[in-house]
Amino acid sequence: MMYSTKDLSYMECFRVGDLARKIGLSEKTILQWHKDGLLPAVDERRQPFLFRGYDVIRCLKKLNERNKQPKLDLCQFYCQRCKEPQVPKGKNITFAGAMAIGICPECGVKMTKPFSPAQIPEVKKIFNLRDKASICDSEVSPLNFQILPPSESPKNGSEQLCMQF
Ligand SMILES: [Zn+2]
């Protein structure tokens, strides 16, 4: 969800209960933000805590930033044009470092998603790893891409790194 900051003023201070009512969330949520270090109190030693509008607005903006992209399944990429998760066309992807690149099946735009090394074995089960030429057109600048450890590369050298699983 996205939090609105329009009813908050920088100068105002809020007690937990007032703030909860103002932004329509539970006191528990607000105290959790405080506990998580997202929302500092005016005086950390004095309860009930008092929160500055300035800090609340900053906290909400941070949370909004965090919530912008929906949680993705391993097989999903986020398409910036469709504004929704998409499974890359043909389940074909290529790697540019830790960044995987796929094509949105709806709009044809290039989508990227970082994977951690720990995810790579799963990723290889789900997707077809392609060399970059068969995924993207010339708009992609020469990338320092790395597809698989050498032991798993096909015999015909580094030119053709197409793989089917
Ligand atoms: Zn799209």
Descriptive report:
The chain has a 4-stranded mixed β-sheet with strand order 7-6-5-8, with helices on one face. It has a two-stranded antiparallel sheet with strand order 1-2. A two-stranded antiparallel sheet has the order 3-4. Residues about 140-165 have low confidence and may be disordered. The protein has about 160 residues and is an alpha+beta fold. β6 and β7 (about 110-115) form a beta hairpin. It has helices at about 15-25, 25-35, 55-65, 120-125, 130-135, and strands at about 15, 50, 75-80, 85, 90-95, 100-105, 110-115, 130. The protein binds zinc ion.
Short note summarizing the structure:
The chain is of the alpha+beta class and 165 residues long.
Write the layout of secondary structure elements.
Elements (H helix, E strand, L loop, with lengths): L12 E3 H8 L3 H9 L14 E3 H15 L9 E3 L4 E3 L5 E5 L2 E5 L6 E5 L5 H7 L1 E2 L2 H4 L30
Parallel strand pairs: 5-8
Antiparallel strand pairs: 1-2, 3-4, 5-6, 6-7
Helix pairs in contact: 1-2
This protein binds zinc ion.
